[in-house]
């Protein structure tokens, strides 16, 4: 965790990647539900 604390840009990148993955997964579930 110290590595991330010392690299806010890296932390932001990781959070952005997680957010994108969650958004994509949610979109797939919604499209599958309505399909």
How is this structure best described in words?
- Keywords: Membrane, Transmembrane, Transmembrane helix.
- The chain crosses the membrane at residues 12-34.
- It is a single chain.
- This protein has 35 residues and is mainly α.
- The protein has helices at residues 2-5, 8-34.
- The chain has one domain.
- The chain is built from 2 helices and no strands.
- The protein is rod-shaped.
Secondary structure blueprint with pairings:
Elements lengths: L1 H4 L2 H27 L1
Quick take:
This protein is mostly helical and 35 residues long. The protein has two helices and no strands.
Strand content range: under 5%
Note the main sheet.
Answer: none
Please state the overall shape, judged from the principal axes of the Cα atoms.
rod-shaped
Give the distance, in angstroms, between the N- and C-terminal Cα atoms: 41 Å
Kindly provide the radius of gyration, computed on alpha-carbon positions and rounded to a whole number of angstroms: 14 Å
Give the mean pLDDT: 84
Counting structural domains, the number is: 1
Instruction: List how many beta strands DSSP finds.
Output: 0
Number of helices: 2
N-to-C order of helices and strands: HH
Low-confidence stretches at least 5 residues in length (pLDDT < 50)?
none
Keywords: Membrane, Transmembrane, Transmembrane helix
């Amino acid at each position: 965790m110290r590595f991330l604390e010392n690299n806010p840009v890296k932390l932001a990148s990781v959070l952005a990647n997680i957010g994108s993955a969650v958004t994509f997964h949610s979109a797939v579930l919604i499209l599958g539900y309505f399909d």
